[in-house]
Specification:
It is a single chain. With 83 residues, the protein is α+β, with helices and mostly antiparallel strands. The chain has one domain. Helices cover 30% and strands 14% of the residues. The chain contains 3 helices and 2 strands. A hairpin with a 2-residue loop joins strand 1 and strand 2.
Amino acid sequence: MRITAKGQVTIPQDVRARAGLMPGTDVVFEIEAGAVRLVKAETSGGRRTRGQKLVDGLRGRGDFKMTTDEVVALMRGPAADEG
């Protein structure tokens, strides 16, 4: 593997998958005894994804008391044999 003129290197897909490095993941480089290690950055609630922002905005806004089973039954509708 070679570093490009822009200082870029491609992390193989299997390595990204095993390390949990998804697009947008913040990483840091650690240097120890002449070796360079790439690790996921410790996040302290810093940068949030659009999905996380959406969930945070909706959290606590529900005003009904249905169980998960009741919601699923409502979404599925009546069974085929209930006609």
